[in-house]
Amino acid sequence: MIALLLFVLLVPTGYLLGAVPWGLVIGKLVKSVDVRQHGSGNVGATNVLRTVGVKAGVLVLILDLGKGALMVVVAHLIGDAANLEGTYQHSLEAACAI
User: Fold this and answer.
1) I need a labelling partner for 60 at 20 to 30 A (CA). Which of 10, 16, 21, 24 fits?
2) CA angle, corner 22, sides to 21 and 26, nearest 5?
3) How do residues 51-97 score in pLDDT, each as one tens digit?
4) How far is it, in rounded angstroms, from Cα 60 to Cα 39?
């Protein structure tokens, strides 16, 4: 029962965190540029690197990697605290990674 509750709470949180377009946010903050209108039109780190600069591109890369890793770590820690069995905990971590 607790595994289902954690799944229902953590997976949507991970989805919402993953939906943050860091490339767009950093482009607007650093140079007031909509990176979707320049370069490849993608909001990823490579287009930010080309359009805004190296520091901004590296920051976007770190933030994009971090948002996925953060939810896996949170799911792992909460799963440990809730004493979930291995299969349930691994499933929760995998779902949060997606």
Assistant:
1) 10
2) 130
3) 999 999 999 999 999 998 998 898 888 888 888 887 888 888 888 87
4) 16
User: Could you tell me which residue, 89 or 19, shows the higher pLDDT?
Assistant: 19
φ, ψ (nearest 5 deg) of residue 93: -65, -45
Residue type, 82: A
Q: Share the mean pLDDT of the chain.
A: 90
- Spell out the residues 6+ positions from residue 68 whose beta carbon is closer than 8 angstroms to its own: 18, 97
Token representation of residue 2: 């607790």
Query: Which residue matches tokens 């770590």?
Result: 73
How far apart CA 92 and CA 80 sit, in angstroms, is: 11
